[in-house]
Amino acid sequence: MMPIKISAASLGLLLAAAPAALAEEGMDKQAKIDNALSAATPMIAENASVMTPDGTVLQEGSGAYTCFPEGGGISAPMCLDDAWMGWVDAYVNKTDFQAEEMGIAYMLAGDGEGASNTDPRAEEPAAGNDWVIEGPHLMMLVPDTAMLEALPTDHTTGEPYVMWKGTPYAHIMVPTGERPQQPQVAER
């Protein structure tokens, strides 16, 4: 298993703060593993570790990714590399983050509840926070945030875009499939 650079407690705090689809709480161990690995490509999933938000290791892996099943505060399965684990640690602890290397996260099962495209701390759709529920996608971190300037923040085109631009948590979203219907929020 690859060393994890984030405490299980920090990961649990982040994921518990996210809007949760808790219907999967009753999953058995194999169902949780299968759910977690659904976030990645077959080749990534083959060697990935699987962990629950509380830090329980469900499957030791030899690859560079740790995958998490939905439930326990996670609204959708995800697979994170070391750079993304560092990002999560910074987000949980409300500290600035600067990637030292390229980071890639897989969410090929799509989002659960979605997120604001502009406010990393927004917890629900509201007027002005540009809420988006993404379908299958990759997320990318870059060590030079100037690279983000060439990309739009418009998530409606189906092309890559920057989420949370201008914050320490800015990252590239790369849609890879159909997006679910988006919530309608009235402007106030």
Key words describing this protein structure:
signal, alpha+beta, 4 helices, two-stranded antiparallel ribbon, eight-stranded mixed beta sheet, 10 strands, globular, 188 residues
Number of domains: 2
Quick one: overall form?
Answer: globular
Separation of termini?
49 Å
Query: What can be said about the biggest beta sheet?
Result: 8 strands, mixed
How would you spell out the order of helices and strands?
A: HHHEEEEHEEEEEE
Helix tally equals: 4
Low-confidence stretches: 1-10, 12-24
Kindly state the percentage of residues in helix.
Answer: 10-25%
Strand content: 15-25%
Strand order of the largest sheet: 2-1-3-4-5-8-10-9
Structural class, judged by helices and strands? alpha+beta
Instruction: State Rg.
Output: 16 Å
Mean pLDDT: 86
Q: How many E-type strands?
A: 10
Outline of this structure?
The chain is an alpha+beta fold. The chain folds into 2 domains: 8-82, no CATH class; 101-175, no CATH class.
